[in-house]
Write a structure and sequence with these properties.
heterodimer, A: mainly alpha, Four Helix Bundle (Hemerythrin (Met), subunit A), 2 domains, 7 helices, B: mainly alpha
Chain lengths: 163, 347
């Protein structure tokens, strides 16, 4: 059952990601991205991470992507013109992505213990989850919050009108 | 296994049919009540007291010609009412209508009890915005686009206040499962409901305001302000596609009322606690809580109509200022207050 669901939603996710790159209208790209996010949420759900799945739908498929579509609608962005793409992207892009992917896989698989990780009971209650977030992994969690705060301040600084 | 599947299927069908009927009769309730507020009779010709009016209206929507304007972006134009209605119907799946009652391994009063039921409702609501947002854009019409821009900005803003207002309740219950949240308020009847005994009346107020805005209802019905925007986001829709938007609005109203009942008014628990003698057999014992639940939901639906009948519409900047500068800070203050109180009580 889990394997079947994985193939259905994994395939859907990959197909939507391809469509996101290949389609020419921005709104179709945005909608494909929503499909990617939502099928990822289903994959999380099949792995037993209910909270993560719900948070993924609320934050990514809901809030963030609504803002994306909102901006596309507001600017009334037209169809993109197809270009040949830059040569540098072709030359560096694929090996670069492959290298980054390998590095991340290595770090997460073999060095995970040094970075600090934790395993939740299945099904995880709200208490287990908050114990991990606010006690065991408090420092990474707070560092991430500060990172987001900096991003918000940066956005405000960029959007501020000059007097 | 087979009986489980069959029973679950029957349950899903029954809940969907009841929800759709409830949607139809909520429309009638609204028309009747608003008519009485304005000193009219409302629908009274079809059936006794106009009771068959919703069915006739439904038949009319089915039989009307379905016009698709020439300039629309067709795939999204057709998809968006489907998104709106399916998201509106989906979230009822995690709502428990009564105390847990197993029949051959199937819970009779809830389609599925999820660990994160409350978040599922929030998630489905946030995906439901796409129905409105895309309908306006794909209609290729300025009134629709303005309506849907207003709707998406409004819903995204008020969703924040709505989500924050629920944190206090979750803190008190210590769980995101709707059933656990109701059980946490069942001890002393009225006095252990979150709105009274739980000191969550600020949260209740914020939730109510945000819920009115989320469902695009008066006084926050700017996305379909007919004096400025013709019909708002559904200007270009006709026949059954229009009816789907209409049904999704009322289905959302019902879901929001159910959630308010579960979170703040103690769900299916009786307001008198254990003061009333428990009547009769086991069937009655599970039917009476269900009646309490329906009564409370009906109270919220009447409140919706009452507000619509009495309050004028907000101006758009007032709406945004009210959401961001008043409701969100109040919600954050409520979270801090509730956390402090809980921390002091446990320490």
């Amino acid at each position: 059952m889990q394997l079947v669901l994985f193939f259905i939603f994994g395939g859907l996710c990959a197909a939507a990601a391809l469509n996101l790159l290949l389609t020419r209208h921005p709104i179709n790209s945005a909608l494909s991205l929503i499909v990617v996010m939502t099928s990822l949420a289903v994959l999380y759900l099949t792995l037993g991470a209910e909270f993560l799945a719900a948070a993924q739908v609320i934050v990514y498929s809901g809030a963030i992507m609504v803002l994306f579509t909102f901006v596309i609608m507001l600017l009334n962005a037209g169809e993109e013109v197809r270009t040949r793409g830059s040569r540098a992207a072709y030359l560096v892009g694929v090996p670069g992505v492959a290298a980054l992917f390998s590095l991340l896989t290595f770090v997460f698989l073999s060095q995970g213990n040094h970075l600090g990780k934790s395993t939740l009971a299945n099904p995880a209650t709200l208490y287990d989850l908050s114990a991990v977030l606010f006690r065991d992994l408090l420092l990474p969690f707070e560092v991430t919050s500060v990172l987001i705060l900096i991003a918000i301040l940066g956005a405000v600084a960029l959007a501020r009108k000059e007097h | 296994m087979l009986t489980f599947l069959l029973l679950s299927l029957v349950k899903v069908i029954v809940v969907t049919v009841v929800l759709l009927l409830a949607v139809a009769y909520t429309v009638l309730l609204e028309r009747k009540l608003v008519a009485r507020i304005q000193n009219r009779w409302g629908p009274s010709r079809v059936g006794p007291f106009g009771l068959l009016q919703p069915l006739v209206d439904g038949a009319k929507s089915f039989l009307k010609e379905d016009i698709i304007p020439a300039g629309v972006y067709k795939p999204l134009y057709i998809l968006s009412p489907i998104i709106a209605l399916s998201c509106a119907l989906l979230s009822i799946a995690v709502v428990p209508f009564g105390p847990e009652r197993q029949f051959r391994g199937v819970d009779l009063f809830q389609i599925t009890d999820l660990n994160v039921g409350l978040l599922v409702i929030l998630g489905v609501t946030s995906v439901g915005i796409y129905g409105i947002a895309l309908s306006g854009w794909s209609s290729n019409d300025k009134y629709s686009l303005l309506g849907s821009l207003r709707a998406s900005a409004q819903i995204v803003s008020y969703e924040l206040a709505l989500g924050l207002s629920l944190v206090g309740v979750v803190l008190r219950a210590g769980s995101l499962s709707l059933r656990d949240i109701v059980n946490s308020q069942s001890a002393h009847g009225l006095f252990s409901w979150n709105v009274f005994g739980g000191f969550q009346f600020f949260a209740f107020f914020i939730y109510l305001m945000a819920a009115f805005a989320e469902t695009n209802r008066s006084p926050f019905d700017l996305p379909e302000a007919e004096s400025e925007l013709v019909g708002g986001y559904h200007t270009e829709y006709s026949s059954m596609k229009f009816a789907m938007f209409f049904m999704s609005e009322y289905a959302n109203m019902i879901t929001v009322s159910c959630v308010a009942t579960l979170l703040f008014l103690g769900g299916w628990t009786s307001p008198f606690g254990n003061l009333l003698p428990s009547l009769g057999g086991s069937i009655l014992a599970s039917f009476v809580p269900f009646c309490w639940f329906v009564l409370k939901v009906l109270f919220f639906l009447c409140l919706y109509v009452w507000v619509r009948g009495t309050l004028p519409r907000f101006r758009y900047d007032q709406l945004m200022a009210f959401g961001w500068k008043f409701l969100v800070p109040l919600a954050i203050a409520n979270i801090i207050g509730t956390s402090l109180w809980l921390a002091l009580r446990t320490s």
